[in-house]
Amino acid sequence: MQALDLACNSSLDPSAADLSTMPELSSPIRSSENPHNPNSHVENNYVENIKEDDVKNSSINNNDNNVLVRRERPSRACTQRAAATLQAAAEAEAVMAEKERKRKKVKTRERLAARLLKESSDEEEEEDGEEEDGEENGSLSSSLQQCSKTVTPLVGEPEPSQLPRWDIRSMWQLASILNFLNVFRHMLNIKAEFSAEEFETALIMPNNTLGDIHMPLLKAIPPITRMALGHGTWITVLCRKLRDWWHWVAEGDIPIVASHGAEVEAYNALDPGVRVVILKALCDIRVEVLALENLSVQPIFY
């Protein structure tokens, strides 16, 4: 190609002929089309490659221009309106949140002030109440001191002869015995008729009424004794029954034991409260025996 350019430049070679006098084979365009030239095929491929590169570069540039046009495309009117609406809503929400925060802050201050005011008022009321209570207590104590001489007890002190009766009346066991006798006297075949006061008198000073109550109870309690029950023997039978059953229904030592006839005098000399406890244990033993009879179980004595 350089040789052809130099051949075509007339200034470099003044002796060169005109272009019209040049042979056809010396033209660069024609020489490339000569099939007998071995370099013509390479030159053609070189030219085609250059053309393909130009086409690719032009296509790349066109693609770049298209992308740039898409990015720079203006937003639509609906998009702008939606964005404006969202922005306005966000601003309104921020304003409302700020107002709500201020309102809560004001409420908190008001509540704190109200609580402090209430506490101060409560303290004042407590102080006033203490002063009033002190005045009332003083007036009450003074009135009590004035009236103490005129107040009389509703119940007077019992006489010494009535102290045993008062003692057994203060025992819950007495009320339990009276209730038991009232409910089961017909089933136990207790025929004696007596009032509560007569029953208390029998417990304080043993008599035939106390024997009439004990004997039907002792008949139904095992083990069966060979001694006949009577007004002179029921205390002895009672001692033998208590020896087998006392620890089933009561705690502590047996208050009376058989001692060849001396138990009668020992029983009569007992405190009325102890006789109440013995009779309560006898009622409990009768209930236990009734329960065992219903279960068809016989107690074992050692």
Describe this entry's structure for a reader.
The protein is an all-alpha fold. It is built from eleven helices and no strands. It has helices spanning 2-8, 28-32, 40-71, 77-147, 163-169, 172-184, 196-204, 208-219, 234-249, 262-268, 272-294. Helix 6 packs across helix 11 (272-294). The protein is elongated. It starts with a helix and ends in an 8-residue tail after the last helix. The model is unreliable at 1-42 and 63-69 (pLDDT under 50).
List the helices and strands and how they pair.
Elements: H1 2-8, H2 28-32, H3 40-71, H4 77-147, H5 163-169, H6 172-184, H7 196-204, H8 208-219, H9 234-249, H10 262-268, H11 272-294
Helix pairs in contact: 6-11, 8-9, 9-11
Outline of the structure:
By secondary structure, the chain is mainly α. It has helices at residues 2-8, 28-32, 40-71, 77-147, 163-169, 172-184, 196-204, 208-219, 234-249, 262-268, 272-294.
Strand content: under 5%
**Structural class by secondary-structure content:** mainly alpha
The ordered H/E elements are HHHHHHHHHHH
Main sheet, how many strands, which sense, barrel?
A: none
Poorly predicted ranges: 1-42, 63-69
Shape summary: elongated
Distance between the termini: 147 Å
Discrete helix count: 11
Number of strands: 0
Helix content: 55-70%
Radius of gyration: 66 Å
Let me know the average pLDDT: 75
Write a concise keyword list for the protein shown above.
302 residues; mainly alpha; 11 helices; 0% strand
